[in-house]
Specification:
Layout: E1 13-17, H1 21-31, E2 35-42, E3 46-52, E4 59-63, E5 75-82, H2 85-94, E6 98-99, E7 113-117, E8 123-128
Parallel strand pairs: 1-4, 5-8
Antiparallel strand pairs: 2-3, 3-4, 6-7, 7-8
């Protein structure tokens, strides 16, 4: 008799622990252009906040750190996709975001990309849609 395995259906939420939640929310919503999907209290004095690109399934939770968790200066492993990487790089640079000096171009099949840091030094990647 074969055993039926439960499969993961999708990546639901990735989490970025932050020390200054309101500042991080403003950055991800106002500067990056993501939409706030969830903002609810949880626990004693905490808020659970999720942001995402319009229409995206996977969200980014901007939340307080868990016990014994340090915030800031993390490589999040999060990659955001845009239609025009050069225009988005210029927009973020003009907004004062800590972005790489220039867009990296490694040639096919690797898309043009750049890294940026949020206000707490967490690194995210931006890639151009193929």
């Amino acid at each position: 008799m074969s055993k039926t395995r439960t499969r993961v259906a999708k990546v639901n939420t990735v989490i970025i622990p932050v020390a200054e939640q309101d500042k991080a929310i403003a950055f991800y919503v106002d500067t990056l252009g993501l939409e706030k999907r969830v903002d609810v209290p949880f626990g004693d004095d905490y808020r659970w906040v999720e942001v995402a690109p319009d229409g995206a399934d996977t969200t980014i939770a901007i939340c307080p750190p868990g016990p014994n968790t340090q915030t800031g200066n993390k490589d999040t492993g999060i990659s955001l996709q845009v239609g025009d990487v050069d225009a988005y790089h210029a927009e973020l640079k003009d907004a004062g975001v800590d972005v790489d000096a220039e867009v990296s171009r490694m040639g096919d099949p690797v898309p043009p990309m750049f890294w940026f840091r949020d206000p707490e030094g967490n690194t995210l990647l931006v890639v151009e849609a193929a």
